[in-house]
Amino acid sequence: MRHQGTDSKRATAFARARHAARNGVASDPPAGKPHPAVCMRCHATHRQGRWRWDPPPPALVPVLCPACRCIRDGLAAHVIELSGALPPSWNEVRGIVGNVARAETQQHPMERVMQIEVQGDKVLVPTTGTHMARRIVAALVRRWRHGVRLVFADAETRVEWLEPREVRR
Ligand SMILES: [Zn+2]
Predict the structure, then answer these.
(1) Helix, strand or coil for residue 49?
(2) Which of 119, 28, 14 is nearest to 76 (CA)?
(3) Gap from CA of 51 to ligand 1 centroid (Å)
(4) In this predicted structure, what is the pLDDT of residue 19?
(5) Burial (CB count within 10 angstroms: exposed 0-12, middle 13-18, buried 19+), residue 159
(6) Are strands 117-119 and 78-84 parallel, antiparallel or unpaired?
(7) What is the C-alpha to C-alpha distance for residues 157 and 75, in angstroms, rounded to an integer?
(8) Which residues lie at CB < 5 A from ion ligand 1?
(9) What is the pTM assigned to this prediction?
(10) Contact between residue 127 and residue 116 where contact means Cβ atoms under 8 Å apart
(11) Percent share of the chain, pLDDT over 70
(12) Domain range list for the chain
């Protein structure tokens, strides 16, 4: 069964993702703020040209960091779409996505997983950076290898879990 509303919402999300990717939303430094700054939402600090998790020194300029802006505006840099024979593996998938997300965000403050959305028989995992998306897809492929089919596009990667009879070993 197809729901028109769901499809157009999904198309909008992808259009936004493409727009965001083209305009480099996730990697932009805070506009017009070359000075050290601290994000008022996640408390990441921007110093010497990069974002860090260091404790902020006092009196930094409060800004909204690019990752928090992506999250606030719902503008993903990349969307991973999970589909197919996913349900039996979903708990494991969710665990892997969570582990990769935590490790990546720790190392690269601007790389985040945004709100995961279930839309019908698909799960959308939007990210604030393409690096995060690549790491998640790589982790899924390491685990399922021939059990998934991948489709790469500009600002989205589709990962489809194959039915057991489709899997060639
Ligand atoms: Zn932030």
Answers:
(1) coil
(2) 14
(3) 9
(4) 52
(5) buried
(6) unpaired
(7) 16
(8) 39, 41-42, 65, 68
(9) 0.78
(10) no
(11) 79
(12) 4-166
